[in-house]
Amino acid sequence: IKLFTGTSCIPLAKKIAEYLKVPLCDRDIIEFPNENLFVQLKSSVRGQDCYVIQTTSRPVHRNLMELLILIQTLRLDSAARITAVIPYLCYARSDKKDQPRVPITARLIADIVEVAGADRYMMVDVHAGQIQGFFSIPGDALTAYHKLLEYLKKLKPGLTSPVVVSTDLGFAKKARNIAEVLDLPLAFVEKRRTGNDAKAEALTVIGDVQNRDVILVDDEIDTGGSMDNAIRILTKMGAKDVYVTFVHAVFSGNAAERLSASPAKRFITTDTIPIPEASKLLFGDRLVILS
Ligand code: R5P
């Protein structure tokens, strides 16, 4: 097989290459002054089984274009099969028409990945399961929860009356699965969004969290609003230590500053999106990145 990566998640791509004992293939990616991108492969991929590892976190449109151009370049160089490995899929929250006259952008992303020339896709903990149905090519919707669960299982014996808490009702099913695997009770933060999906406001807690350590779960942290509000209301309701657990560290705007200033005991995540060194420093040893 041949492994390629864009510039969005080089550390993760290197780990995958090491794990598979397959080198990353050399390629040039150049941005011209007019922001157009140029890609050139440094060796032939004719007849090869190729994988492009590229997460589509910020800068979203640059990273997405790198992915699409890499796929097209492989297609034009006669690769036998191309798999788009997208650890974090951008626009995954735009998965339905829940207001009049709005797009379903996740569907558009699936379409353009196919049009570029991908034969298969791989994604990790994509926001909504139905997004798999937006692709007509086959693929694998992978999960990183087993990594988080391994960690939480080791943590559990040292916790005081632990409870799993979902940051919102939309994540309830997945939170219930996590609680079941850990054999722990479940509670919920009832979250309501205000404004245009940018601000979140946590309103109340459903379930018993008083004098308990909390494992607070969600799929991603974007602006940090949902988590920050959840941590605050849980603390107000008498929760003890809060362990924040999530797959995708999107960390837009001042999310890292905001969350690192919160009283949460630990932040447990994965490397589907690289976290900038400056943000890591803010969290210090409260941040655990699983691979
Ligand atoms: C929403 O449906 C997701 O599960 C997360 O709760 C959300 O993406 C977090 O966003 P933010 O960090 O901006 O509150």
UniProtKB/TrEMBL annotation:
It catalyses: D-ribose 5-phosphate + ATP = 5-phospho-alpha-D-ribose 1-diphosphate + AMP + H(+). SUPFAM superfamilies: PRTase-like. GO terms for molecular function: ATP binding; kinase activity; magnesium ion binding; ribose phosphate diphosphokinase activity. Gene3D superfamilies: 3.40.50.2020. Keywords: ATP-binding, Kinase, Magnesium, Metal-binding, Nucleotide biosynthesis, Nucleotide-binding, Transferase. The keyword Heme does not apply. Pfam families: Pribosyl_synth (PF14572), Pribosyltran_N (PF13793). NCBIfam families: PRK01259.1, ribP_PPkin. This is ribose-phosphate diphosphokinase.
